[in-house]
Each structure stands twice: as C-alpha cells, then as structure tokens.
Amino acid sequence: MTTPLGRVRGLGSAKGGTAAYVWKQASGLALGLLTPYIIGIGIFLFGRDREFVIASIGSFWIGPALLGFIILSAIHMDIGMRAIIEDYVHGHLSKLALLFLNSAFTWAICTVCVFAILLMMFESAKI
Fold first, then answer.
1. Residue 74: how many other CB atoms lie within 10 Å
2. What is the torsional sign of CA 120, 121, 126, 127?
3. Are 112 and 98 in contact (CB under 8 A)?
C-alpha cells in the first residue's frame, strides 16, 4: 500500500520527475561555459573571407565547440519551452499541439545547423 506522499515524491508539476530540471541546469551550465568561447570565435571570424572561415570551422578547436553549442542550445530551448507550455497552457489538445510544434521546431533548426557545420567541416578537409 502506497501513501499519497509516496506516490508524488520525486515528481514535478508535470509528473515527470526531476530529469528535465537536471538536464536544463546541466545544459545551462555547459552553455554558460561555452558562450564566451563562441563569442570569441565570432569576433575572431568577423569580416574574414569565406575560405578562412570554413578552414577555421573545420579545425579541431572550433568545429566541435560549435556543434556542442548548437546541440546544447537545442536541448536547453526544448526543455525550457516545454516547461512553459506545460505550466501555462491548460487545454489538452492545444498543449499537445504546442509541445509537438516546440520539439519539431527545435530539432529541425538543430538538424539544419548541425548539417551546415558538418558540411563546412568536411569542406575544409578538401581545401
């Protein structure tokens, strides 16, 4: 027999536990560490010609950092918007539709960005 407290212990407002909270906090910490580096890369590459930018993105120090930044940003954005939708949208069908659109938009943008960065990384290998 489970008590009411035992049934809800460890569950958040959406009954999903603390996994989303931990993922959001971890991705926020990682983004906080990566953001100054990415801003520095942007300042360094600003105004350079295309070949230099592609060769730089293809390097070991810039390409993987950009990929990590894009993927972590997508995770952070998806979880953050999911929490907002779950807390403030009360209609069942509209909540489901918005959750689907949120995930579809986030991961579509992430996929396009990752594909573009990978193309630049592999293009620099040919140069």
1. 21
2. positive
3. no
Q: Which residues of the chain have pLDDT under 50?
A: none
Q: Which CATH number fits domain 21-126: 1.20.1300.10, 3.90.78.10, 3.30.428.10, 3.40.50.300?
A: 1.20.1300.10
CA proximity to 62, closest of 76, 45, 87: 45
pLDDT value, residue 20? 83
Give the C-alpha separation, 75 to 117, whole Å: 18
Helices (H), the chain: 4-8, 19-45, 50-57, 63-88, 92-126
The two tokens of residue 25 are 């906090």
How distant is the alpha carbon of residue 112 from its chain centre? 13
Q: Give residues with Cβ within 8 angstroms of 9, minimum separation 6.
A: none
Nearest by Cα to 81 from 98, 94, 96: 98
| Residue showing tokens 């953001």 | 35
Determine the 3-state secondary structure of 9 from DSSP: coil
Q: What pTM was estimated for this model as a whole? A: 0.81
